[in-house]
Each structure stands twice: as C-alpha cells, then as structure tokens.
Amino acid sequence: MNDEPKKFANWRREMVERQIIARGVTDPLVTDAMNRVPRHLFVSEALVDSAYGDFPLPIGEGQTISQPYIIAEMTQCLELQGTERVLEIGTGSGYQAAVLSRIVYKVYTIERNNTLFLQTRKLFDRLKYHNIVTRYSDGTQGWQEESPFDAIIVTAGGNQVPPPLVDQLAVGGCLVMPVGGQLTQDLIKLKKTESGVETTNLGGCRFVKLIGQHGWSQ
Ligand code: SAH
C-alpha cells in the first residue's frame, strides 16, 4: 500500500476535501480514515480510475459500493470515539468496514452473498485489517453472541429496522440504516436511551435491498 502510485493519495485528498468536508462532514476521525483507506482496491480493476469519483460503483453480484459522501455521513452519524465494537450488516466490497476499522477497536461485519463474503475476507487479510471479523449469514438477525454493540450500521435498505438489531445495540449507542421502499429510502438514525429509542430522519437515499428474515424476502 505504501508503494501505491502517488495519484491515488492525491485523489483521496481531493475526495475528502471536495466531496466530504465541503459538504459538512468534518469529524477528523472520519476524514482521516477516508484519507487512509485505498478505495481503489475495493473495486474491480476496470473501475480503479473511477474509485474516488463522487458516485456509487458496482461491485459485482448486482451490488454497489456507496458514494464516498454517504459513507462519510453514515460513519459520522455513529458518533464514534475510537474504543467501540461496531456491527455492520452488508459487507459487500468491504470499504465501509475498512473505514470503520481505522477508527474503532473492532468491526463485526455480516454478508449474505457467499461470493462477496469470500472475496472481501481475502482483501481484509491482504491489507492486514486484523480488527475486522467477518461472518456469512443473514445480518437482519444480528450477531447475538457478540452483542451488545456500541454502534450498528446497515448498508442495505429494508422496510423496517430489524428488531434484533435494536435489541443488540448498547444503551447510548447509535444505529444508522436506510429504511423505506425497495427503490428509495430515508436514512434513519436511531439512538438507544435508557427509556427507549430516539429516531432522526436524515433524508432520502437509494440503497440495494436488505434481504433476510427481517428484511425483504428477495
Ligand atoms: N458496505 C458495503 C455495501 C455493499 S451493498 C460496501 O462498503 O461495499 C450491500 C450489501 O448488503 C450487499 O453485498 C448485499 O449482499 C448485502 N446484504 C443484503 N442483505 C443482507 C443481509 N440480510 N445480511 C447480510 N448482508 C446483506
């Protein structure tokens, strides 16, 4: 990674300045992490030169890696300090998990597509991202044995926040997830308190489908 062509570090810096900080995501933990993770290694060879563009990209299996700004906004929403254990649903290319892993203590990430699961596990090993734990299963059921989590991020859209995820979130923790229809959703932030949950709507978004027991059926 240290011997990557200089252009990538320049593209990353531009991405962070123009797409992220300029639009109001300024948490230094988030911007530093996004300056460090080589996004071009999370897309196919053919898309390497588009990896730092201001748009989502296909990652195979009909799935997509979100636009950098959305990743930054969702990550900032989790209100991280650095000591957390975070659960991600929808590993996909692994980019979101990689960004989280540069900020927090440990990332637990679940993927339901076996091809993506295997491919991304290999990439984490290659990049020596040793604080990412992966699992091949239906993430709408969460990861009971490792709960509670200090923060939870769902990177696919469902018609509701899966109840097991709310159960597995620690009090004081934040969960962020796209909720709505199959084509468009609203980005929802939920904060768990002693007395219940507080929900904030962060506005419209468009994600691939969350498929599983507490998501879409297919
Ligand atoms: N965070 C990813 C985004 C990938 S797209 C990234 O940074 O690239 C969303 C992913 O969610 C897809 O890979 C899809 O297969 C996965 N997914 C959908 N429903 C799921 C479920 N119930 N459990 C786990 N993964 C799921």
Task: Describe the protein's topology.
Blueprint: H1 6-21, H2 28-36, E1 57-60, E2 63-65, H3 68-77, E3 85-89, H4 95-101, E4 106-111, H5 114-126, E5 132-136, E6 149-154, H6 163-167, E7 169-180, E8 185-193, E9 196-205
Parallel strand pairs: 3-4, 3-6, 4-5, 6-7
Antiparallel strand pairs: 1-2, 7-8, 8-9
Helix pairs in contact: 1-2, 1-3, 2-3
S-adenosyl-L-homocysteine is lined by residues 59, 63-65, 89-90, 92-93, 95-96, 110-113, 116, 138-140, 155-156, 208, 210-212, 215.
Percentage of residues in strands: 25-35%
The ordered string of helix (H) and strand (E) elements is: HHEEHEHEHEEHEEE
Number of DSSP helices? Answer: 6
- The secondary-structure class comes to alpha/beta
> Could you say what the CATH architecture of one domain is?
3-Layer(aba) Sandwich
Strand arrangement in the largest pleated sheet: 5-4-3-6-7-8-9
- Radius of gyration, in Å, reads 16 Å
Query: Mean of residue pLDDT?
Result: 97
Poorly predicted tracts of residues: none
Question: Mind telling me the CATH class of one domain?
Answer: Alpha Beta
The CATH homologous superfamily name of one domain equals Vaccinia Virus protein VP39
Distance N to C terminus: 38 Å
Written description of the protein model:
This protein has 218 residues and is an alpha/beta fold. It has a domain at 55-205: Rossmann fold, CATH 3.40.50.150. It has helices spanning 6-21, 28-36, 68-77, 95-101, 114-126, 163-167, and strands spanning 57-60, 63-65, 85-89, 106-111, 132-136, 149-154, 169-180, 185-193, 196-205. A seven-stranded mixed sheet has the order 5-4-3-6-7-8-9. A two-stranded antiparallel ribbon has the order 1-2. A hairpin with a 4-residue loop joins strand 7 and strand 8. Helix 1 (6-21) runs antiparallel to helix 2. The radius of gyration is 16 Å and the shape is globular. The chain starts with 5 loop residues before the first helix and ends in a 13-residue tail after the last strand. Bound molecules: S-adenosyl-L-homocysteine. The site of S-adenosyl-L-homocysteine has 25 residues, from strand 2, helix 4 and strand 4. Residues 59, 63-65, 89-90, 92-93, 95-96, 110-113, 116, 138-140, 155-156, 208, 210-212, 215 line the site of S-adenosyl-L-homocysteine (SAH).
